[in-house]
């Protein structure tokens, strides 16, 4: 679980992260995510549905070792696929993020 506030947030499946990343993630959850979710969606976030945490690989899927290591390779990144809200709604990042280029 992330955050020590009133509403700690679960992470499923569990993600392997380094200590500094866990601290930054907790700060983001408590200081940004929860306030915005409550204000915008009238519900708190109960779970981060992760797509990826620690994966030893190069940046941008480089499998040949020609580039730099991905932040995932040092457990310093998490990919979040969706958020489950306390009221049961699921906010899917790919579906609800909006247009990207």
Describe this structure in words.
The termini are far apart. A hairpin with a 4-residue loop joins strand 3 and strand 4. 27% of the residues lie in helices and 21% in strands. The mean pLDDT is 83. The chain is of the alpha+beta class and 101 residues long. It is globular, with a radius of gyration of 15 Å. It contains two helices and four strands.
Keywords, please?
101 residues; alpha+beta; four-stranded mixed sheet; 2 helices; 4 strands; 21% strand
Task: Please give the count of helices.
Answer: 2
Compute the separation of the termini in Å. 33 Å
Q: Which class best fits the helix and strand makeup?
A: alpha+beta
Radius of gyration: 15 Å
Output the helix-strand order.
EHEEEH
Proportion of residues in β-strands: 15-25%
Number of strands: 4
Give the CA-based shape.
Answer: globular
Major sheet attributes: 4 strands, mixed
What low-confidence regions span 5 or more consecutive residues with pLDDT below 50?
none
Helix content: 25-40%
Give average pLDDT, whole number: 83
As laid out across the biggest beta sheet, the strand order is 1-2-3-4
From the structure provided, what is the oligomeric state, counting identical versus distinct chains? single chain
């Amino acid at each position: 679980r992330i955050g020590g506030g009133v509403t700690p947030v679960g992470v499923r499946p569990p993600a392997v992260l380094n200590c500094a990343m866990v601290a930054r993630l907790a700060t983001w959850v408590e200081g940004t995510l929860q306030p915005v979710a409550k204000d915008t969606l009238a519900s708190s976030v109960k779970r981060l549905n992760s797509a990826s945490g620690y994966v030893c690989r190069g940046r941008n899927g480089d499998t040949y070792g020609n580039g730099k290591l991905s932040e995932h390779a040092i457990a310093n990144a998490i990919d979040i696929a969706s958020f489950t809200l306390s009221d049961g709604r699921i906010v899917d990042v790919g579906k609800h993020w909006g247009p990207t280029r």
